[in-house]
Amino acid sequence: MVLSCCAADAQAFKVEVRDAPPLAPDTWVEVTGTWAPHGDAPPERAVPVIQASHVKEVPRPKDPYE
Predict the structure, then answer these.
(1) DSSP type of residue 38
(2) CB 7, CB 38: distance < 8 Å
(3) How far apart are CA 17 and CA 49, in angstroms?
(4) Tens place of pLDDT per residue across the chain (66 aa)
């Protein structure tokens, strides 16, 4: 999520996670890795990339929007 001021203005933002194991839909994970803000594309067409070094399944939070 990207926040400019507060939770009311939050926007979903996709991030590509490379080298992560296959996951079932709606799986919650914690990812540790190296951030590449523009991936392999020019900034105007980029999808940010995280090169995962560790991916761990975590339980879904009681309130996922908190």
Answers:
(1) T
(2) no
(3) 6
(4) 777 787 788 888 788 899 999 999 989 999 999 988 776 777 777 778 899 999 999 999 888 776
